[in-house]
Write the structure tokens for this entry.
Amino acid sequence: MIPVNSNLVFTPENINTSSESAILIILRGQEFLTSKNSEFLIFEEDDLKWSEMEMFNKQFIGYLNDQPCYLLEITPESKLDDDLVLTPLRNLLGRIPDSLFTVCSRSLQLSEWIRNNQFCGVCGTKMKMHETERAMFCECNNVPVYPRISPCIIVLVTKGEELLLAHNKNFPGTFYSTLAGFIEAGESAESAIHREIFEEVKVRVQNIKYFGSQSWPFPSQLMLGYHAEYLEGEITPDGEEIDLADWFHYKDLPNVPTGNISISGQLIESYLEKLNN
Ligand SMILES: [Zn+2]
């Protein structure tokens, strides 16, 4: 097994041209094979020699520190070795380095893509894997089907020393976060920001500034993070998605995500840093 450390560099690729020995990330359903103490595991092929796990869907996903890295899935019936358990990616958030988060994110999305595109949506024939691109196709139309990525906006709205934070109905307890939503077909990121914020809390914003992005594979979001300034309106949660929302002074914030877990936390931390300087 390869030790996990923060010096690992991951480069996504579709075709392996290296002769180095391969390393493996193992997935069962949507959970990763980890050790019993929840350490993330990168396997070498020799590690699996005596294993009774049934494997399928081996996919090259890129290079981890120059070593070709493959995703390998095991069947739901597979018997796990005694020292192994399965861990969902959410439980590994903030506990694995960013490069490994990228590996996991890519693995989950590729596995989901293959599972959901077994047959052509036009004629129902079994799909084929493209030889050079990470795509599938059917001979009936030769239109490549790429892994699906769903862009979303995520926005920290601020008014001087106050931050607009919301509690989503699905969040546990008193956890608050920034506002977010999917970009509709045909819509720009900026229009989605204005629309989503108004839909969710009836507030208008201005001075939108791009901050950065994060892959969020639950199941296929690409979160585009923005800062925005309050323009007008009284906070009124929509009651559908958002049940609570309010202005919070930066010195008196509720439970919010941290920057090592999500871009929402990074947006909040970057704003606090600005206010503190
Ligand atoms: Zn077809």
Observations:
- The radius of gyration is 21 Å.
- The first strand starts at residue 10 and ends at 12.
- The longest helix spans residues 98-116.
- Helices lie at 89-92, 98-116, 189-201, 263-276.
